[in-house]
Protein 1
Amino acid sequence: MNKIISIIANELQIKLTQVENTIKLIDEGNTIPFIARYRKEVTGGLSDEILRTLGDRLNYLRNLGTRKEEVKKIINEQGKLTPELELELENAVTLTEVEDIYRPYKQKKRTRAIIAKEKGLEPLANVIYEQKESKNIEEIAKEYINKEKEINTIQDAINGALDIIAENISDNSEYRKKIKKICYKEASIQTKAVNIEEKTNYEMYYEFVENINKIPSHRILAINRGEKEEKLKVKINKPEEQIIQIIKKDIIKQKNQFDEILEKTIIDSWKRLIEPSIEREIRADLTQKAEEKAIQVFGKNAKQLLLGAPIKNLTVIGFDPAYRTGCKIAVIDETGKVLETTTIYPTEPQKDILGAKKELLQLIDEYKVNMIAIGNGTASRESEQFIADLIKEVKHEINYAIVSEAGASVYSASKLATEEYPDINVSLRGAISIARRLQDPLAELVKIDPKAIGVGQYQHDVNQKRLEESLTGVVEDAVNKVGVDVNTATPSLLSYVSGLNKTISKNIVKYRDENGKLRNRKELLKVPKLGKVAFEQCAGFIRILDGDNPLEITAVHPESYIVAEKLLQNIGNKKEDIKDKEKLKQIKEKLSNVNIKELAVELQIGDMTLIDIIAELTKPGRDPREEMPKPILRKDVLKLEDLQEGMMLTGTVRNVIDFGVFVDIGVKHDGLVHISEMSNSYVKNPSDIVSVGDIVKVKVIEIDKERQKVKLSMKV
């Protein structure tokens, strides 16, 4: 265990005590959001991202330890476990290394070497390998001729012995370690087109070579996809001569009668046994690293999207664009309640602009609609043009915004959507989702499979189990950062709260339906299956806005209520004052001048916890998403034809990937800011500069009207 703690501390550049304490908290069943928010003193203030990485590494290293013990046991049962082998296993730092050590002791299919051993040729193989015998090889091999064992000639005996040597060389874990080290330093990946005449998305890889230690992850994933679709042939170019020389130098001691056949055997072992498996392992390793990077990018983007600023207190029309089947409309009030749904046909083929305009203007007027949320899918720009013309005729202030509709169709047909809107046609549910995404992105997006959110690259190509685990963590962190109003939240949203699962979440909603609004957090203990452990984990993330205790509109945990009340008493206030605007101003002023160190000692609480409590008491009920950039609200539409090189525009970052960012500037397709155009200084990672949802100023640097592509620059 101490070794695991040291490895993690070294990798994450944190203290041993931080790792040790965090592992203890995880093993006690605490969730990452709970540890990150309410156990800062114990972890030394580690962020949720670091805690999740720590948790992942802990799992990997524990699995590694378990596998080492399994391998040790199997080798020991064969009576072949030596102190040297035990030490080699102990020092292995990856599962691949452990499998390389285990390779010679693994039950194999009947290989040429196994057949040769069965024929009794192992002693001959040892003679050749040791190179000590002065007697002529043919004479030695002659003794092994055995018609019954199908060793009919001297050459049969020698060939069988060489097969044994070739496999032994291949199974040598030290050779494999050295070979991989050389390959990772000097090998390159090469791709060629299966059909050079065919036009595909992979044309840049038709004649392509790049060192494997430099190739970025998005190119690995693109190459893998091209190979899977049978558009590309892929191989790893390895420094073959150098590798063969290393093995030769170790095996061939001096010039002797065996050196020529040993050299041929080394080459055979390399080409037939080592190279194919090394290539597979390198490809698998490159893919795994690329997938991890893609999952990180996807997770970071998804978190930003989930934490998008809500548009509150507005009646919104959700507008789900389409052609033949018509545009679906849903009117949603400021609480998210569906007021009315309909379908209009302003786009091709019907193009009933007058009829559509009349119906929509009537809805806008009747329900005093302030905002229209347009989905960004098929027919989006034609619909946007229609809306831009329409709102000129509306008498009151109204805007529209383009909203990502990724996953809306998946949600519409889901069991959850059927439960929520049993009487509403499946095609209209997408419009409801689009409207609600603008009102509260988090509450709506948690209903959708995180993979369908659509902000990343190659998310369908990566390990789906690993992606799901990572994204579940991302959604949990986002939900718990914001907090959840227990009296309005859906089971989908509640299920991501620390300590809660789908069953408990449904039980909370059922309890609420049967007993009315919850008045305090303690009432959660009356919910079936929500015990003391779950209560401790979830309580601080649950909000009760009109309940018995004003502290429950904040993230102050019940375990700190006494401290929070003492703190307020110290400055001459009580907890009820945080709901009074005038008194809250005084509380803010007084708490801004306190001495944290002295007060923490007096209240017998950690500095970091005290700082968090003060932050909550000065901004009770604050939604952290309010600090995020608001969606760009539009009144008019921009066409590709309107763009000119050099034009300055404001846009919303829609996706951040390895090689740049895609920015919505209001034309049909998002423009690309390549990583080289993001800053005047070197940019290692686009996510260091911007996040999904950021509002950025960009300059148009190239317009490709034929391919409907726009290149942008942030060097403005």
Note: The first strand starts at residue 188 and ends at 193.
Protein 2
Amino acid sequence: MDEKDLKEKTAGDNICEANLLSEEELASLPALYRRLLTAAREVALEGDDRRLRGIVADGASRGLFARDRFGLSALTRAMEGTITFCNRVSPDRNIIVAMLLYPLCDGEFLTPERIEKEWGEDIARMVRGLIKVASLYSRGRIPESENFRRLLMAFADDIRVIIIMIVDRLVLMKAINHHPNERLVRDIAVEANYLYASLAHRLGLYAIKSELEDMSLKYTDRETYTNIARQLNERKNSRDAYIAQFIEPVRRKLLEAGLNFDIKGRTKSIYSIWNKIKKQKNDIDHIYDLFAIRIILDTPPEKEKSDCWMAYSLVTDMYQPNPSRMKDWISVPKSNGYESLHITVAGPGGKWVEVQIRTRRMDLVAEKGLAAHWRYKGIKSEGGLDAWMNNVRDILEAAESGPMELMRNFRMDIYDKEVFVFTPKGDLFRLPAGATLLDFAFNIHTKLGSQCVGGRVNGKNEKLTYRLHSGDTVEIQTSANQSPKPDWINIVVTSKARTKIRQTLKEIENKSAELGREMLMRRLKNRKLEFEEAAVSRLVKKMGYKNMTDFFNAIAEEKLDVGVVLEKYIAGETAPHESHAERISAGEFNLQAMAQKETDAPETSSDVLVIGNDIKGINYKFAKCCNPIYGDDVFGFISAEGVIKIHRQDCPNARNIRERYPYRMITTRWSGKSGSQMWATLRVVGQDDIGIVTNITSIINKEKNVSLRNIAIDSNDGLFQGHLTVGIQDNESLNALIKKIKTVKGVKDVSRTR
């Protein structure tokens, strides 16, 4: 390609204006594009260069690559990002195309639909993921809201979106070094540390993780960063001399053994050194593992382990090892795929030196993570990827105390060290350090954890609180009478166990509350009284309970006498007694005397109900047992207080009313047009899937003249059941809403309850 082509195309329409490309940026584009072509050459398809160059140049000429809030050009940032991705992770054609096209989707020039048509569904899916993430950022800082959870959920849709965002954040961090808005830079640096460095660590992108952490420290505590960097620089000559002195005899031994290898020294990152200084409460001169020696073996796959252990033997024969610092990540790799042997030995002068031994393949994974050998085609067959995705979902479900708790769990699960334990059959399980026998039980299966009463560890009986150690063989003991207890939350450390315990406790609580509700309803029915939610709600508050669940639990557990509750309910509602009511027919009732004063009816300009023989202006209330709305088939029921209660014809109490009080029923029909909103409750059943509730509420929010008043969700055995109370004008609108909710993926049934 002619290196001036891109510059000429982008300069064609005088785009050197505020917010667009500067002359300096235009001049740098050809060189930047050549670097991109070089980095992507091995994965590009025929015609990609021409097609991408054309659409990027067209977008730039229209001024669509506007500047972000840091003043950076979206075009140069996207190109720098793709180059960084190719060099630091692994070239992939679809990811490169998605990264270049995404900035052009901020408008009508390029849409995901057009991308799908011209470039394929896989690239369009990544672009949609990036748009979704960008929409969350547009609402404000992520850590200050529930957007943090939504952000992780957006990431979890496609692992490649995570990698793109990590790389983009690395490019951004490098670009804002001297940005004048220090507060903005600090906010970005903090987020880069707790979120993007954490994600990079989880994916095994250690080099990127270290850079993000170093730059984060630089932008949040420049004095500390500069001080450590200066001390490292001052000691560089002596450090290099010591590394050479340590390496030389090791090199000779490895050559004599016939091994092919590279060997080099590596200084710890500034952020890592700073953490060591804080943890050990010491200065840089007393950090014993300030640098590490890395031995990288060129060896065939079948000899990887044996050659690594041979190198280990040669090094430990020469230098005294510290057994407590031995780490074998070859026999059992880390969850992110990391494999290496780590040993700490006493080098010349008695200084402790860390030695890392790995093969060329292991080093590639260590530098570029699992991403180094994923296929990036949307295929989720890799065990490491599946484990990662499941872990993210566990964390998302675990934090019920808001974004800050979620962030704490997210980092805790990433950086915790690991223990490896076995079942009696020899199956190996990986858990975070500090995990208990109860964590292990829940890790195997929820039912096993829920019924766990203890276990045998290495042939010895242990309690639920036993802290596991690597190499333990664990057999779980259960009892059918066992169930989770509230204090179990304080025993476990894994987010999975914590989530399952809370879910089970909630299910037990709900079952108990349902029993208490049935006890009260049965007593009310015996007294020929209706169960009204509003009346019970007032009674719950009057008796000092936080919510109905606690109230009904107290009844079920006999902490509250249901008889006492019944009397208080009757006293509070002044329920009518049939023996004191005058037996009159509906036709004899003085309708005109029931002029409307205070009513629960909708506030409209004219009555929407005609009661009796075309008589309006009647005092009426909508029955709480069935909540009729405009358009429902209804009837009136004259209560002893002189108020007509409006019921649906299919009300659960309708049959009893018709059989016992036919003389108190009165014909009722709707009149005029629907007025203000009335309340209806929907029962929704579907698959217990992240995001399904969001999709349902999104549909409701988009409906005109429909509002969501309340939502309650319960889940069990992969299914969820939700009750949604919505404000709506008539049953025609309600039926239309039900049809739309039924179209949501994963929804199995939608029905109106009352």
Note: The first strand starts at residue 261 and ends at 267.
Protein 3
Amino acid sequence: MCGIVGYIGKRRARDYIIQGLKILEYRGYDSAGLAVFDGCGKINCIKRAGYVSQLESATIGTEGNCGIGHTRWATHGAPSDVNSHPHTCGKFTLVHNGIIENFVSIKSQLANKGKRFLTQTDSEAIAVFLDDVYDGDVIKALSAALKKLKGSFALAILCKDFPDKIFVVKKQSPLVVGIGDAECFVASDCMAFSQYTDKAVYLKDNEIGEVSSQGIKLFDGNGNRKAVKIEKTATEYFAPADCKSFMYKEIYEIPKAVQYTAEEFFANDEKKLGVVDIFSKNDKVVMIGCGTAYNACLVGKNIFETVLRVPVEVELASEFRYKNPIIDDKTVVVAVSQSGETADTIAGVRLAKSKGADVVVITNVAHSSITRYADMVLHTKAGAEVAVAATKSYLTQILLFLCVATVLSDDLKSVAAIKKEIESLPQLTQKTLALDEQVHKLAKEFCKKQSVFFIGRGLDYALALEGTLKLKEVSYIHSEGFASGELKHGTLALIDKNALVIAVVTQRHVAEKTCNALHEVQARGGKVVIITPFEKAKNDVECDAFLQLPSSSGLIAPMSAIIPLQLFAYYMSIERGINPDKPRNLAKSVTVE
């Protein structure tokens, strides 16, 4: 879950590396470092615990045209200067994204040879191993590393014997090389270099690359040359400091995101025919995801079962990959991942493919790793999402489930009604953003709460789960989401005058049932906030706060109701003095298990 960048060419490497690390800081921000050849064969290595901005200050004046950089999310060893990347041993200096599962045994073997270790990281073991096996042939040493190392890893490496090259290795962690004019860029995500080039080489698993200013030479895991395929990228570029908060900015981009996603889907006749083909030849549907993507799958299940009347199973990808799922060549697995790099979801997809299942991927990154395994890719057109907490991507994931349902349904009247609702969605979400000030006032009132509960039924229960995830992610408040009917089966014991219960009520046929649960909360002295398009609910329950959503129908209503929950989480973090874009212990792209 770290960010890697590298540069070789005519520019000052330090400047690109710092800029690239700022763009990739969503991947980890507990420490950062860089290493640059100074033009005289020496490698200057500087690293700092903390944000990239601290590294930026420490590296002013660093010269050289070839270098690598890293922004870290710690897996082994506490965040510190010494545990920060790059790591150096002998002639090798490297940065690493991933986890080396057998690093303890490797360290033990190398220690028995008299090798010394300075850090607590698994990554240092790679540098020491390379130094141990190196005989002047870097590709040979990297081939040996691929055979020795277990786990997932992407590496960018400098070797003192080759001051005009960056060596790269990939296994189950993302790595891409941008091809420019007499310059090349290395990154975990092509967003880091999209300002400079739209040409890229996406490394495959077990590939080794030798990068120079003139391009890249590719080798397989045995050191044999491979053909190089240059692809065109379509990644949106953004300035790292173009807004006060990315989370807030991205919430306000929801209307455009849903508009672009729906327009792109319905304009693509080939994609729609592909959807019909892949779902019609299968008789079982399984949806997998992690975190927000899993919550989107819960909504997708409800949409499919409501519109299509077909049963759907939903699994956490981290659980799905380690069970023996009952799937076969008549199953379609829908995998959802905002980044397309979620390790557990990719592993789940590989498992599904090994059992003969078809795979449909919903992702926001068109060239991400997960797309390499997909029989079909459905692209959410949300644009770059940088804040750790997913907002606009969640809405577009749900929207694609709804779009797919319209293509698969035989009920022409129902399809026409849903399409009309989809057309109204940009305007509906824009109207919902008008609740901003009211939500901010609620956050000011409740920001000192230590425990918050979200409840709902049906689609609203899925929203409650996403609302609670958003709040705990960015405000560090203990929060739980429950089906409102389950409140009295244990959770009611936690309700007292200190509790805050937020109820989402968008499903008319169960609205009264949720209101009944709120009466139970009030009877125990709990505070109640209702979010609903139904004005009648205000009279049915004596609540402490009432957020009136714009009028909308059943399947679309939850897509507007999530917006005030996202804004509430954002403002709670602000009121508690927390940076909502960079919550502690979390990273945007979860590329490790």
Note: The first strand starts at residue 3 and ends at 8.
Protein 4
Amino acid sequence: MNHQEMFGNALWIGCDEQVYTPYIRAAFAARKGAKGTITICGLGMFELYINGKRISDDLFVPVTSDYVKRSITVHGLPFDEEMHHRCYVLRYDITDALQEGENQLAVALGPGFFATPLDSFDGEVRFGQVRLCYRIQLENADGSTEEAVSGGDTKWDMGNVTESYFFNGEKQDLRRHGEDWTCAPFDGWKNVKILENMDTEYYLQDCPGDKVIRLLEPKLIAEYDDVKIYDAGENISGWVVLEDEGAEGDMIRVELGEALDPENPQRLAYTQDQFLEVISDGKGRTVHPRFMWHGFRYFSVKGRAKVRHAELIHSDIPKAGRFESSDPVLNWTHDAFVHTLLCNSHGGIPSDCPHIEKRGYTGDGQLTMEAALYALNHQAFVRKWIRDISDCQDRHSGHVQYTAPYTRCGGGPGGWGSAIVSVPYQYYLQYGDAALLRRMYPQMKEYIRYLEGHSQKDLVVSDREGEWCLGDWCCPGGVKLPAPFVNNYFLIKSVNIMEKIADILGEKRDAACAELKEKAIAAVYREYFDPDTGNFSGNIQGSNAFMLDLGLGDERTLANLIAYYEEKGVYDTGIFGTDIVTRVLFEKGAAATAYKLLHDEKQQAFAGWIKEGATTMWEYWACDWQRSLSHPMFGAVVASLYKYVLGIRQEAGSAGWEKAVIEPMLVREVPCLSGHTETRKGKICVTYDYADGILNISVDIPCGVQAVLRYGGKEIQLSEGKNQIKL
């Protein structure tokens, strides 16, 4: 929709440009018995009150998008790519909050991504100054209608949040306004400024907002001088809630981190400069951040304040999957991944980490998408992010950004840009909806054209000038795999998927893409295959698995891969290689080797994180150099726990779970397994239990799903409902 269609005659309003956190007030009249709705957008984030009542418990709305064109530089170069811009709008029923006569509207604004202060950690993401637009539509008992819209009669004042840095923290001065600011007289407030309309498209938000999901009770673990150190018990995204016990003018300061310094347990580590600073008004108020969340487990409190609790906050996405086994390492891997994934679900974005960058990296997101679709029921969330990926493609070159929505970042042309192909395809497989495939298929072809233009001798060797050109990432001891090798893998895989998409859509396969794929395959053989050994790129960091995943190599390639990891017994792979090695080992019948890697107890393994007391997944395998202890990317292997360990997957060619295959790959070391995933047709549940040499299998199949069990060379047709099998 354009502005007129969404907001009618409402105007965008704001305040002084250097103010990032204003309160905005207006009065409007309503008749007795009137029903009302409000269409509203406050950028970057807003809280809405009518007559003192908070209208929604959603946090950090609207969801983030590539709101409008910006003039920015990236790595010192002008960013001149042309993308699509959209802005999300909320519509609420406010009938229950209305009263006869005069009504009070109050809005608190915060910067978010849109208006991040230029002097903040990453002011380059800034789109513009904070702003508000709203349209109240009233329907009276007699059928007549009235409107109240944002305009010049609205007032503003500086809010209690005096400084807000989206990536770090907030400063609040509680003396500025009382808790009744939403209804108190606002005489003396300043007139708002009328701002220009934005050149963007408006959409009603159809993606879940963030909510407080769970309360945690932190424990006091250290105390010195006037500082207290607390442990929330697990690494989370959210905030600490305090009860101010200070006198007027007293200062409270909270600092937050993901770990304690091993050399000094009274000092936080991995803080990323996260803080909350509050000046007391002496009235014992409850305080927490307003317009940002933190990523933390530990925190310190300096000043007179009582810790009430910590709140886990993320997008309101229900869980859809469960995995339980007799192997605690596998259980931890699943549960830590899901927890990390949710801690990185904010504002309609699957982020890389909940504190430092808060960006929707296309590499991390496409890598973990299949596992996420098994574990979470988040169709609307993923659909929204696919729009972001579509929006962030350059309309001229076909270049796909490393983050969606786009902010300054780093990545590579293969593992990141290929999200424009892989994520819509995974969405289609899960939900059976081909509409997004049809809309984005032309964009996929433009992406392949971009890769061709950044190739030399049929190897993808560069990206946009000045940008990174990664292949894999976060390998132990550094990435040794050549970036062109990995990027060609993603080019070939993307075209393979696009050929399937063309068949799904009933379209002719693209000849130019097919030709480019064959040239890319030939280049990989020419540059990286050793005909004497059958290895690609020396069989390092999963290189053989990359090509086996594409159907390349020969029988030696697989044998060498299995022998290498049987002897090594631990991952030496980065974010992409870890998933690919695990998946290929399962698919090629080497389940025992895959299990060995999954529950190995060395440092660069999931059990190593458990030994370190981790409750979320880390950015790096080892703890010798860490930025973040909440990164979901290595958890992509959880898809293998569902598909191969539990054995729940779709029949080849099926979409939307029309046809399912139950084909577990069991080992004696894990005698008990159970779990489920919730499809659009219902839950598929499995349980496996070895007892007295007999394997007891229980499978629940929902209505409308055709399913078979394959195990031990047998194929058994399953019926809807509960199936009990002994083998």
Note: The longest strand covers residues 227-244.
